[in-house]
Amino acid sequence: MAQPAPYPPKSKTHLAASKEAWLAAELRELVARAAIKEGDTEHAFPGLRFLRVSKPLPYRKWHAFGPMLVMVAQGRKVASFRGVNLSYDPSRFFVVTGAAEFEGKIIEATREKPFFAFCYAISPDIVAKTLLALADQTLAPMAEPVPAFVGAMEIPMLDCAVRWLRALEDPVERRVVAPLVVEELVFRLLRSDAAAAIRSAVGQERDTDKVQSAMQFLRAHVERSLSVEDVARHVAMSPSHFAHRFRAIARVSPMRYLKELRLQHARTLMLAEGLRVGEAAARAGYESTSHFTRDFRTLFGASPGEYARRFRDP
Q: Residue ranges of the HTH araC/xylS-type domain (predicted)?
C-alpha cells in the first residue's frame, strides 16, 4: 500500500508570514489594553500615548513638536501636510521628522473594530546617539528634507514594538528593559530606507558628538537659567552654527529641547516626589506658574494639577 507523501515543511516565506501575523495580533492586544478610553490615553513612559477611536474622525489640526513615531495596530489614518496625503495602517508606520502641523482623518474605525495606535515622541537624545552610531553610513543628499514619511512595517520593527509594550506592563521592566528596547526601536527606524529623510538632512558633518554633549549639559543643568550662547560656549561652537546643527540633528531647537526637559523634570517632581505645581515649576526653572501651566498643557494635554491627579488616583 502506497504511503502518503510527507507533509512539506513550511517555507521561510510562510514562517515569516505566520510570525508577522502573530506579532500584529500581539501588538493589537497590547495597544487595546493600554488605550483604556476613547481618545488619547497618556502613558507613564515619557512621550508615549495610546489612541482608541470608534468611528471615522477628522482632525482639523494637530502639532508635532519634534520627531515622532506612530504605529497603527488596527484601522487606517491619513495625515495631510501642504497638500500631500500620507496613509498608514498596521502595514506601514508613520514618522514626523521635526516640528510640523498636520491635518488628519481616521478613515477605518468602528465600535466593533476601533482604530488603535500609539504615538511616541522620540527623544532627541536617542536620535543623536543613534545618528552618531550610524555616522559612517554614506547617503546621497536629498534636495529638501521631508516633514514626514511612511515606511513598510517589517518584522524586526514589529517585534521590537511588541517587546517594548510588553516591558511597559511590568514596573521593573518598564524602568530597566523598556529604555533599552526603545533605543533599539529608534535604531531600526533610522536604519530603514524611509528614514534616509532624517539621516540625509543631518548630513555627515562631525557635529553630532557636540550636539550630544550639549544635550548632556542641558540635562545636568535643567534647573538653571541657560541661553543658546551659554550652551554653544560649552561645546566650543558659535551660537548660530550650534543652533543650526542642533536643530538638524535633534529635529528641535535647543530652547525647545530645554523647555521639554524642564516640563519632563517638573512632571517627575510632581509624580515621584509629590511636589505641588508651583514648587515643581520653580524647581524646573520657571519664574511664572501660569507660564509653566500653559506650556505643560500644550505638551501633555492637561493642566499640571489634572495630570498629577490622573496618575496618582487609581
A: 212-310
How far apart CA 46 and CA 123 sit, in angstroms, is: 9
User: Are 163 and 183 within 8 A, CB to CB?
Assistant: no
Tell me phi and psi for residue 303, to 5 degrees: -70, 160
Cell 491627579 found at: 309
C-alpha cell at 253: 531647537
33-121 classified as CATH 2.60.120.10: yes
Question: Domain segments of the chain: what residues?
Answer: 33-121, 205-314
Q: What's the average pLDDT block by block, 10 residues per block, for the chain (314 residues)? A: 52 72 95 92 87 87 74 93 86 82 87 95 79 60 66 92 95 89 88 65 63 88 90 92 84 86 89 88 90 87 83 59
What CATH homologous superfamily does 205-314 map to?
A: Homeodomain-like (1.10.10.60)
CA dihedral 121, 126, 127, 129 (to 10 degrees): 170
DSSP string over 122-143: --HHHHHHHHHHTTT---PPPS
